[in-house]
Write a structure and sequence with these properties.
Radius of gyration: 16 Å
Keywords: Transferase
InterPro entries: Acyl_CoA_acyltransferase, GNAT_dom
GO molecular function: acyltransferase activity, transferring groups other than amino-acyl groups
Strand content: 25-35%
Structural class: alpha+beta
Protein name: GNAT family N-acetyltransferase
Number of helices: 5
Organism: Streptomyces acidicola
Largest sheet: 7 strands, mixed
Distance between the termini: 22 Å
CATH class: Alpha Beta
Shape: globular
Order of helices and strands: EEHHEEEHHEHE
Length: 187
Amino acid sequence: MSTITVTTWSLEQTSPGDLLPARAPQGDVRIVRSEVPSPEFSRFLYASVGGDILWTDRLSWPYARWQEHLDRPGVETWVAYDRGTPTGYVELEPQDDGVVEIVYFGLLPAFRGRRVGGHLLSYGTARAWDLAERWPRLPPTKRVWLHTCSKDGEHAMANYQRRGFRLFDTKAEQEPGVPAPGPWPGA
């Protein structure tokens, strides 16, 4: 099996003032928290956004694993909609000591390049900073971080940096070269 070199960049914000919001796109774009944990919906978002950029680590998760993950206090999914159609999402996950990770962020392929990504990332990052307001048992957020890699969309890194994220780590590793699964087998 062939291998590919994958570079992973980790970025962070250490103050709410670091966030540089993007302008909201024109039209009827709304961002809504998915408040009812739904493994079906979360898997749909994960597979649809990441299918063409090799998001594969959660594809084998059974229903119970999805439910367990989504039921954790502070795990939130924020979904962007364009005229009622899901366009992308941000998943937040609290960690120790007031750290929140943006675990997943992305747009469905048909909605990339429409200026929704910067707005969704801005909104999701702001929700990471105020996470403890919705989850009083969590400590106030002191740091928001994420990672992106060379398999992600070509504009991902620039979007993160334009939103005020700063690079703090870079790693390169060999991974198996596998075809992108698409949003469903054979797509």
